[in-house]
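Hi there, hope your week has been kind to you so far. It would help a lot if you went through both lines with me. No rush at all, and the record is pasted right below:

***
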Amino acid sequence: MNYYGLFSGLTALDPRENDFDNMLRCVKELKEGKSIMKPIYNHVNGTLDADEKVEPTPIIIFEV
């Protein structure tokens, strides 16, 4: 999974590089009780680190 395009030379700070469809799918899967692999954007070097597994919980805090 990748919320960030990062293929055009733009950074994840540019809205054109965010995959909100994938982000919405991940939120839906968490709400359904499924675990997801969340992409981690590295703000130091502008690349993606290894995905992080997120387990569903009764309360989900979603920050954009």
Q: What stands out?
A: Helices lie at 20-31. The CA atoms of residues 31 and 58 lie 8 Å apart. The two ends are 17 Å apart (CA to CA).
